[in-house]
Amino acid sequence: MLRSLNLSGNRLRELGPGLARAAPQLQTLLLSGNCLRALPGGLLPAGASGLLPLLSQLEAADNGLQELDAGIADLPALKTLDVSNNQLTEIPVELADCPKLKEINFKGNKLKDKRLEKMVNGCQTKSILEYLRVGGRGGGKGKGKQDNVDKEEGRKKKRERRQKKDSGDGEQDELEEVNKLLIKVLHISENLAPLVIKVSPNIKEVRPFIVCCVVKGMNLKPGNALKRFLSAQTKLHEDICEKRTAATIATHDLQLIKGPLLYDAQPPNDLKIIPLGRKEIKAKDLVRQLQLEAEEQRKQKKRQNISGLHKYLHLLDGKENYPCLVDAEGAVISFPPITNSDKTKIKKSTSELFLEVTSGVSLQICKDIMDMLILKMAELNKFTLENKEEVSVSDDESDVISGPPNLNPSQTVHHENTPLIVEQVRVVDIDGNLKVLYPSKTDLTMASSLLTVIR
């Protein structure tokens, strides 16, 4: 049986389904240096299924490819995809449906989505796939992107219906819409006491971009719901936040916050915070303490890699002032990209969260990451609802991050059509002039089979 085929360096212009049918056990297909214009193209014709079920490595660099089509998702074993140095302008959202994909190379293509183009040149595969999975702008802007998304949603639903029918479980299909989780945007005009963030001029040269919002209705009481939420935040920091170099997420207990808030920059010797799980300390001393802990960690493990907050210390190198978010009582509740305050940490009883995303790179990155965080929260809330875990009142896991407010027992009952409420939050300059409003009409537009946004 043929398991590896190298067709590189020929003048192939197209591929036909005959190859797939003649080599059903094929695992490696090398097509670099040809004249192909589309992939998979004719290799996997529309309507054909089950072809190349074992193909795990597909290389088609230096071809002049102009299209990577949705058929790529019909390669269930695909682990490595190299389409570098081609003429691709879009990456299909379907790529995120490849369940085993671990390594992709899109370098040397001029993508319409410049954020995505930057990511393919420097990010891990997981970050890129997560960006596509939540909508991103992988298909470019406007109607073309939405058409691709709509087609993919239809295609996935057809596959799911077919699988359910084959297993005699077709009745579940009708429940999908009922179980779909909703997000309701509460506008500033509807909020009697909206939270406002003022931005100090001092922050401009330090970490200038911030986006905030409030989320209500999160259920963290049952089972491991809180652990899953904190774990999801950590994964976002590692992937789409690019190990906090692109942006940093912070989550707080809304009921423990006194507004309005001030986003400021302070000298390390003046900035004081109660870090998670620690006593109040000056930022200068905290950084020094973490540096010493990092050195001790290196000695004990006899390696260069360090973990925890220690691996983010270099992001403060060369900073004369440190960024911080300060409440109306003068208490620092956030010190990005290092830590939140223990004062506003998340507990299992938390249901109303104040979310912040800060960046030294761009405002759009803050918005994209906030979109992904809210989507992930919706997915986690849905998972918690469907799994009906036993409610726990212990706050043992609350020493990891900071989060939202307490919920009385009558509020913890979640129904399928009960939406998460996302309240708009304004960021203004020191004179009250609007800088950012999130979510605006152009935010939270990502595609998800789990999510409907009511505006």
Question: How would you describe what is shown here?
Answer:
- The chain is an alpha/beta fold and 455 residues long.
- The chain has 2 domains: 4-134, Leucine-rich repeat, LRR (right-handed beta-alpha superhelix) (Alpha-Beta Horseshoe), CATH 3.80.10.10; 181-385 and 418-453, 3-Layer(bba) Sandwich (Phenylalanyl-tRNA Synthetase, Chain B, domain 3), CATH 3.50.40.10.
- Helices cover 24% and strands 20% of the residues.
- It has helices at 17-22, 114-120, 125-133, 143-166, 175-179, 225-238, 283-301, 363-387, and strands at 4-6, 28-30, 38-39, 57-59, 67-68, 80-82, 103-105, 181-186, 196-199, 209-216, 248-253, 261-266, 272-273, 281-282, 322-326, 332-335, 339-340, 352-359, 420-429, 434-438, 451-454.
- The strands form 4 sheets. Strands 8, 9, 10, 11, 12, 15, 16, 17, 18, 19, 20 and 21 form a 12-stranded mixed sheet that branches.
- α6 packs antiparallel against α8 (363-387).
- The longest helix has 25 residues, at 363-387.
- The N and C termini lie far apart (56 Å).
- H/E series: EHEEEEEEHHHHEEEHEEEEHEEEEHEEE
Q: Estimate the mean pLDDT confidence.
A: 82
Distance between the termini: 56 Å
CATH architecture assignment of the largest domain:
3-Layer(bba) Sandwich
Number of strands: 21
Fraction in beta strands:
15-25%
- As for the number of domains, it is 2
Give me the CATH superfamily of the largest domain: Phenylalanyl-trna Synthetase, Chain B, domain 3
Biggest β-sheet strands, sense, barrel: 12 strands, mixed
Could you name the CATH topology of the largest domain? Answer: Phenylalanyl-tRNA Synthetase, Chain B, domain 3
Helix count?
Answer: 8
Structural class: alpha/beta
Molecular shape: elongated
Radius of gyration, taken over Cα atoms and rounded to an integer in Å: 24 Å
Keywords: Coiled coil, Leucine-rich repeat, Repeat
Pfam family, one: LRR_1
GO biological process, one term: phenylalanyl-tRNA aminoacylation
GO molecular function: phenylalanine-tRNA ligase activity; RNA binding
